[in-house]
Amino acid sequence: QPFAAILFLVAAIAENKRIPFDLPEAESELIAGYYTEYSAMKMGLFMFAEFIEIAIIGALFTTLFLGGYNLPFMTDSGFVLPGGHSIELPHFLVVIVQLAVFLAKVLIICSFQILVRWTLPRFRYDQLLRFAWKFMFPLALANLIVTAVAVWAVQAIGSA
């Protein structure tokens, strides 16, 4: 589901209100918005929550689209290589490798989100709404319909 992955990541970055979708922060620069009410520690907690949300988005994306902690050729007992070769590992070491794989995938997605923030300019409200309603929403609906038809077709072929 590459379209669903792209849609999810773009929508998640927009929901996180990070650049290029940081419209509430743009309001605070214009002396409006809810950020102007807070300073010091309370403002820091808002920023901390946004960075935690980056990690949560990375973990969700990794779980839903990148296979979570799964690694090719890895089983519960170690690695099974092509050609019938295998490397047996203790279970605790397999768990540590799986945790490292999951964290590496999350770190890559978090780095991508930060890269997007650094490289793209900020959208205006009208641009963001046009992008969401004229591009994202129709693409999401088309993806949903194509996926439903594909699942139905596979089930119909399988039961025949």
What's the layout of helices and strands?
Blueprint: H1 2-15, H2 23-29, H3 40-65, E1 74-75, E2 78-80, E3 86-88, H4 91-119, H5 125-159
Antiparallel strand pairs: 1-2, 2-3
Helix pairs in contact: 1-3, 1-5, 3-4
Describe the model.
The protein has five helices and three strands. The chain is mainly α and 160 residues long. It folds into two domains: 2-123, no CATH class; 125-160. Helices cover 69% and strands 5% of the residues. The two termini are 26 Å apart. The longest helix has 35 residues, at 125-159. α1 packs antiparallel against α3 (40-65), α1 (2-15) runs antiparallel to α5 and α3 (40-65) crosses α4.
Assign a percent range to the helix content: 55-70%
Query: Can you write the helix and strand succession as a string?
Result: HHHEEEHH
Strand order of the largest sheet: 1-2-3
Gyration radius, rounded: 21 Å
* Unreliable runs: none
Number of domains: 2
Shape: flat
Beta-strand content bin? 5-15%
Q: Average pLDDT across residues?
A: 85
Number of strands: 3
Oligomer: single chain
Structural class computed from helices and strand pairing: mainly alpha
